[in-house]
Amino acid sequence: xxxxxxxxxxxxxxxxxxxxxxxxxxxxxxxxxxxxxxxxxxxxxxxxxxxxxxxxxxxxxxxxxxxxxxxxxxxxxxxxxxxxxxxxxxxxxxxxxxxxxxxxxxxxxxxxxxxxxxxxxxxxxxxxxxxxxxxxxxxxxxxxxxxxxxxxxxxxxxxxxxxxxxxxxxxxxxxxxxxxxxxxxxxxxxxxxxxxxxxxxxxxxxxxxxxxxxxxxxxxxxxxxxxxxxxxxxxxxxxxxxxxxxxxxxxxxxxxxxxxxxxxxxxxxxxxxxxxxxxxxxxxxxxxxxxxxxxxxxxxxxxxxxxxxxxxxxxxxxxxxxxxxxxxxxxxxxxxxxxxxxxxxxxxxxxxxxxxxxxxxxxxxxxxxxxxx
Length: 373
Ligand SMILES: *Cc1c(COP(=O)(O)O)cnc(C)c1O
Fold this sequence. Notes:
alpha/beta, 373 residues, TIM Barrel, binds pyridoxal-5'-phosphate, 2 domains, Elongation Factor Tu (Ef-tu), domain 3, 16 strands, 8-stranded mixed β-sheet, elongated, 8-stranded parallel β-sheet, 10 helices
């Protein structure tokens, strides 16, 4: 009845956030918790805030509205430049947004004036990812224009790395972002409240020896949720990598499956593995498929082999002990599998470790995870 489901250990998410906040704080960097991979799930967002995140951010207005509908009051920033058609909603539910287009900024200003608020603008600078952003040489012009438009306030600048192109940012790139913020202040006058250095891919830089300069914020999703550094995929010291578990149910179990080569007709063809006919091989089918998650982002149970998947079935080879029909199989997920599973309508979310408020921190017996490494 409760399969498939994602089990979420809120204590581990709180703990991961706390670890990052503790490690980045001495360098003057605050943590903004990014909720897009969990579709703005309010309890997960709250766990980030309880762990010390200074605010929340999401790429989609629908997710922000979900957070607001659940009563979350803290600052929320839209980190994808708003759609022109959504200016009113953005102003209503977000304190600030990342922007690259003058036309959109004007629309946000008009919407803010209509609602009697002032909307914060963070200008996204293109520093090498080649996704979104204003070229550094155009930044001062746009910043000055933002300063002159009633209804919006220039709140800061931000950059993004290792999303569409390139690797983790270098110390030179980060120093360039600091220098840009000083230059914008020289030209425009006001103090920039936010200089947001990037995402989880910035962590190796932020944990490094060099000075962090003007950077005072990182927008962290994957590192908090999965405890890993995205470019290398390595676990971050002291972090939980198992806050999320995907659970699926066995709907067929064959002790002696056909071992003749299978000729699939779907794109997972190259993923098919023919397992040696050792006599100790069995096959199970789980009620989960491509429609629910990124199957290739699941880590198989120990000793098991992915045979293939279709839209609704996952076929796994298992060494000896065959689970009975109706039993559950548990998987860890990478970022892509998590993101798809959290958005899948047929996957339930089961929360573990919800704390009554006020939140007591640290919980007993978890202190060893907080050690600065
Ligand atoms: C998704 C996103 C983030 C968070 O990225 P993670 O790798 O999950 O930390 C930060 N900033 C922007 C603009 C994003 O789109």
